[in-house]
Amino acid sequence: RGKRAFIAGVADDQGYGWAIAKQLAAAGAEILVGTWVPALNIFETSLRRGKFDASRKLPNGSLMEIAKVYPLDAVFDNLDDAPEDIKTNKRYAGHTKWTVEEVAESVKQDYGSIDILVHSLANGPEVTKPLLETSRRGYLAAISASSYSYVSLLKNFAPLMNAGGSCLSLTYIASEKIIPGYGGGMSSAKAALESDTRVLAYEAGRKHSIRVNTISAGPLRSRAAKAIGFIDDMINYSLANAPLQKELEAEDVGNAAAFLSSPLAASITGSVVYVDNGLHSMGLAT
Ligand code: NAI
Fold it and tell me: Residues 61-78: pLDDT tens digits?
């Protein structure tokens, strides 16, 4: 039987989630995605109208199929968590079952089990503010959307994961080194995500025999990264300073994700794997 993957955080064809979905599809996996509710209508319309067809193309010439798109808002575990203004918001009111617990339940009903879980989402409302100017609310929102969302996904999906399964998230070097401009508590959120990767690897490894890793990715011009505002500078910095002086492609991260999700990586868990042209290992800008 082929593997089945659930990838949370795909809303266009520009980000890491899409690239990971593609490489998993190319390796033969069945693809389910979770798309942020406010972005869902436009994503599904674009998919239907063929706007992504060029980037759906797999190496064998066929187009990546997404078996099902689930509405998801990973900051809510169940409806009791969601405030009235979200429930009645017209972008949410047209959809149901978008909390983490409900999405896991729907996937279980639709497919029974999965083998691969990918968390490719982050949000920090105050990301453009320095940490010193970040509000408590903004900081906690960054942690909720970017770190706890992974704990919650794993908690709810691990019971549907087959033994030997793999969980992945995407992190950024700002967790361990100072990256001015990556503010709003996002650096803190990534540090939590990496620490949680180790603890979750232990807990989910013992309990469910699944693996938990995170990819520390280099800069990519995704929708989320463009919103931070300094992505071109980061790409140029990497080109100038990384051991490998080439632009990082989303596909490079997709390929590493496919490897980490495969039996080739059966003994790798609790790791932060750098896919960044080696930039993390430099100690001095050149
Ligand atoms: P992206 O814009 O393709 O992905 C972020 C996704 O998160 C979007 O689809 C957005 O709709 C979704 N999202 C936001 N809040 C959500 C919520 N509450 N519930 C469900 N979905 C939600 O951008 P990108 O850059 O590919 O981001 C994917 C991951 O890669 C993130 O964790 C990001 O921090 C990480 N990363 C990105 C780097 C970059 O340079 N682009 C570098 C290193 C890590």
Answer: 999 999 999 999 999 999
Which residue lies with its CA nearest to atom 34 of ligand 1? 122
Return the bridge partners of 273, or none: 215
Cβ–ligand 1 contact at 124 (below 6 Å): no
Q: Which atom of ligand 1 is nearest to the CA of 39?
A: 11
Helices (H), the chain: 16-26, 37-48, 53-56, 84-87, 90-93, 100-111, 136-143, 149-157, 186-208, 223-228, 231-241, 250-260
- Which atom from ligand 1 is nearest to the alpha carbon of 119? 32
Token pair belonging to 132: 């010193």
Instruction: Report yes or no: 157 and 170 within 8 Å, Cβ to Cβ.
Output: no
Q: Closest Cα to atom 26, ligand 1: which residue? A: 15
Choice from 120, 188, 238, 239 to test ligand 1 binding pocket (greatest atom count within 8 A of CB): 120
ipTM over 0.95: yes
Evaluate whether 193 touches 168 at the Cβ level (below 8 Å). no
Under CATH, what is the fold of the domain 4-281? Rossmann fold (3.40.50)
